Give the backbone structure.
Amino acid sequence: MRRWPAQDGRRALGTALGVAILLAVAPASADPTDACFSAHENGQVVRRAGKLVQARQQFIQCSQTTCPAMNQADCVERVNDIDRVLPTLIVEVKDEAGADVARFTLQLDGVTVPADAAARPIPLDPGAHTAVLEGAGFPRVTREIVLREGDRNRRERVVLTRPGSPVPPRDRPVPPKDAAPADPAPGRNQRILAVGVGALGVVGLGAAGVFALKTRSSLDESAPFCDASKRLRPARPRSPW
């Protein structure tokens, strides 16, 4: 029977003991408090950078009951603050006839989103996003979407059209019912007003001319009774004979 040298036996025993010590110490060295403080700090950094989705995940991590009470309370409050302004997007996919398209593929900023999840609010960071949609029998459609803080449940309607079908215009905002209708011919009212003012001016000039002519005629009739100094001469008394 072969015997192992004593030196090799001691080396193997030392290795086994070292592994056992590491396994026993590793769980104790992972302090959850450190992870809570780290998540709290990282969440504030990404929040200032405008990455609300990532910041929310960090604050959720430090809002667990295993974290210190003060740290946990602050993280819970920060999660609520983000939820009030975090933009969410709902994608509505229609065909050229206005019917719903149930089967399609959606990619938001290169990340695939299932069709059923597109009908629910999708949390996104504020800023520009690229949506690429493609359905069976439809060509690919790319849409640029800009979200801002506070855009809750923003609905984006995307129309997929089959080749050869007329492309419908994108939905335009509907003006309020009490809003005044837009002038179909801009400047028309101004032109009408200018013509009216001109006509009044012509009438005024004509009236002034008539008045001047009447005044001149009256002066001509009274000329025999005026002397050179523009004074009226007294009337010659009539003879009784």
In short: Strands lie at 88-95, 104-108, 111-113, 122-123, 127-135, 141-147, 154-160.
